[in-house]
What does this fold into?
Amino acid sequence: MSDQSINEIQDEIIDEFAILGDDKESTVFYIMELGSNLEPLEDRYRIDSNLIKGCQSKVWLEAELEDDRLVLKADSNTDITKGLISLLIRVLSGQSLDNVINADLYFIEKIGMHNVIGSQRSNGLASMIKQIRLYAIAYKTKLQSQS
Amino acid sequence: MSDQSINEIQDEIIDEFAILGDDKESTVFYIMELGSNLEPLEDRYRIDSNLIKGCQSKVWLEAELEDDRLVLKADSNTDITKGLISLLIRVLSGQSLDNVINADLYFIEKIGMHNVIGSQRSNGLASMIKQIRLYAIAYKTKLQSQS
Amino acid sequence: MIREQFRILSREINGRPLVYFDNAATTQKPDVVINAISEYYQDYNANIHRGIHTLAEKATEAYEGTRRKVKEYINASSSDEVIFTYGTTDGINLAANSLGRATLNKGDEVLISAMEHHSNIVPWQMICEERGAILRVAPINDAGELIYEEYLKLLSEKVKIVSIVHVSNSLGTINPVKKIIADAHAVGAYVLIDGAQAAAHLGVDVQDLDCDLYAFSSHKMFGPTGVGVLYGKRAVLDLMPPYRGGGEMIKEVTFEKTTYNDLPFKFEAGTPNIADVIGFSSAIDYINALDKNSVQEYEKKLLEYGVSKLAEIDGLKFIGTAKDKISVISFIIEDVHPFDIGMMLDAGGVAVRTGHHCTQPLMDYYNIEGTVRASLSIYNTEAEIDILAEKLKAIVKIKRK
Amino acid sequence: MIREQFRILSREINGRPLVYFDNAATTQKPDVVINAISEYYQDYNANIHRGIHTLAEKATEAYEGTRRKVKEYINASSSDEVIFTYGTTDGINLAANSLGRATLNKGDEVLISAMEHHSNIVPWQMICEERGAILRVAPINDAGELIYEEYLKLLSEKVKIVSIVHVSNSLGTINPVKKIIADAHAVGAYVLIDGAQAAAHLGVDVQDLDCDLYAFSSHKMFGPTGVGVLYGKRAVLDLMPPYRGGGEMIKEVTFEKTTYNDLPFKFEAGTPNIADVIGFSSAIDYINALDKNSVQEYEKKLLEYGVSKLAEIDGLKFIGTAKDKISVISFIIEDVHPFDIGMMLDAGGVAVRTGHHCTQPLMDYYNIEGTVRASLSIYNTEAEIDILAEKLKAIVKIKRK
Ligand SMILES: Cc1ncc(COP(=O)(O)O)c(C=O)c1O
Ligand SMILES: Cc1ncc(COP(=O)(O)O)c(C=O)c1O
It folds into this structure.
């Protein structure tokens, strides 16, 4: 579970990327390193119902509820996509459903992600975020109907 | 029957066009006037077997043999094409078969016809000349087989 | 100021200033369009969509940017409904093949009008022959207007597709397409509108018109050659099978089975005309920057001036006198062949089109071989019309003498 | 000096000089091509063929001049055999639809190879499905070469059409098309060659090859996008019905009956991509002005240098090692996804393509998702290959640490 708020984590990431400066090559290398450090998803989660298909990369995304908080696990066939996912997980996993639903993910724009990964991958990133929010909303609805 | 040689007539035409100078408008007007003065072809000659079809203009061409000489009659639905034909008739009609077959029609280039009427009409003009030559060759073959 | 954007307009033809009155065939292009194409090639030329490098990214963004711009221009509800084609003809062929195969069976009917361009006749003849369907033709009156009652009479339940021109290229007639579409929908027919001549002169709102398909060409609206658009309602495009097969239009290919891509890519096989699609965007910007109302007013004034001037000419008869028309003036002159008129005008620097304008059946209706057509655009002037009128007078004088 | 003709090659990507290794997707364009297009629009833009005014004349002459230039370039026996299309994909679709309808019946076969581009698979799948014909696939070996005996075994009398790629875009393999064609003719099949990748790298002599149809794209040979050529033997084109209907491709239209125009116009409906066809002419001039032998030698040297440099990289495996191949280097690197490689190379200014290159069945054969492809052209240098090799080493180092 995350003790930091979403915005605290976002600000941390912004600072980290600031060190890389404007150099796209270092930035992309860094994202790839983040990706290769992401724990691989267990095989039982790498199923079609968890699959988000992009142009060349596939993303498996699994969201579970633990004590009112959303826990995210994900994987991809490409390291760069994994790197992007790892940032999303760092920011959103372990946060309350409401915080996930209402989060303003300003770090993406601040670190100039669009320019780094291009518009096609930016669209992919946007669909991942959308998918995470949908999970959160679904869990919330479920909790409300139970109470 | 023509008393002048093909080249004498060609040179005459070249001189006439030289007076018009480089002005395309006067030249086209002149060709159109030549066309409207061309005697219309009798209806019995305006038949499909005499027809050469261009893009927008039709040409009827009739070639007869009179005393070893080729006599040409022609008509068109447009005055400018008639004007072009009238020049061909003036040069070639009444000439001997051999002279028609071997004629070097330099006047066309000399009066800059390609530039005046454009390449599509120039192609049309070329097919008219080809057709006239074919008539001459056909008559010659016929005469030879009779002798 | 408008003329300065079009460098070609200041050139001379045979020592005389060019008067370009052949805008219905193709318009001239402003500098911004020509520059956009050069810039693309010099700065970010690359193949699009599947590329991940920076140039491919930039080219893809620009290409898809044009799609969004077209969506706005015609007020489509989504840019997925904007299919890039190679021109109106290509778009109508796509529609005839694809929608035709999806809807036409033996004895079904396709309904067009008597004023259609060959590009809106022949594709339907071909698909009708293949499917055993029948091509019906709604007649026109002498002014060059659709006879609406006759159109209604032909609209039976057998009619599966109606394909009608928005604005006639030979006559200038503006058809009442909104009504035409509504009445066709009432019998369950799909409607394609051939907007080749409309897109530059009228505002087009496909949602307001409620047409199922709308085809037009970039080159007739100040854009490059080799690009067109087929707009289609999503529901209609969804039921249409792919037309061309190849790269980009697929999701997955195996030798056994191919699954097709989503809209709009399903209909865009192979490397598209990237540079010109991008150039087309600048053409739409150019049009958008003009004031639509004053353009329409200006063209209307030019038309009226042209008609009044040409009416003075001995033996001249207008072909196409619809009440509602754009700035196209088609005419014949007694005893002078259109070809002769065109050649003589050109010798004097005036570019008009002569002939059947790819509407032979329409010419058959008027029992003529063709017309002389002066089609006017925003950069034409009354002074140019004066030149045309003078030259026509001179021609008639020679002929009549 | 070659590089100076291509202004884009001096630009920077992310602060690093652009290294453009995506030439199989599309080549860059020399200034002469870009200028020819601008000149057309600024000097003599007009719709062609039926126009009689000076601009239309000039545009028509230039457009038809390109046709003659293509005729010479591929050594066709007449320029009537040169059909302008919108690209290779469009040309193959034309062929599949038209020749397919003219020759394929239930149970007939179309034979392609395992290394085809989707554009030479999907059109045949579509027409085979329509006609009840069967698509057969000649297999390849691990080097990426056609297994010739297997091809011969598949060549039965049932095969009506053989459609094979001249040069593979994913592998670089040069197929022995002359033999392929002769053997196919022996069983009475027509042969189409997909020359998209060949036209810029090899000399093409359609009479020597004796192919029935040959398709290629301008944009892959230094010319503009949106233009292609379908060459066809006159006798074959004559038996093919028209594909697209519309303006230009007709002789006479009535609502009852339409007669089609002569070759090549029968297959060119609508306003063509005039400006780019004219620009294409300059691209051919550009190629013709180069010394063919030294270009081929230079590209061969580049290929060899690239292969030797990349062979040093830990875990790198070449995909496509045919004996006879052009300067295309496809590879994978153990444990690194092609996409990651492509993204990281691009961040360093190096443009390669990654993925299946529109040859999914070929990737299935190698049991891989895709490759990284560096496709080299005349303006590439050994220094650029050094940059590629260095960057790959850095990527591998990160991954392996
Ligand atoms: C071998 C091959 N065939 C066909 C094509 C399709 O060409 P185009 O996209 O120009 O239609 C390509 C281009 O990617 C190719 O490489
Ligand atoms: C009314 C109409 N429809 C269709 C077309 C065909 O357009 P394109 O030649 O751009 O395919 C034209 C153009 O001449 C036209 O005026």
Summary: Chain C has two domains: 2-22+291-399, 44-288. Residues 24 and 153 of chain C are 31 Å apart (CA to CA).
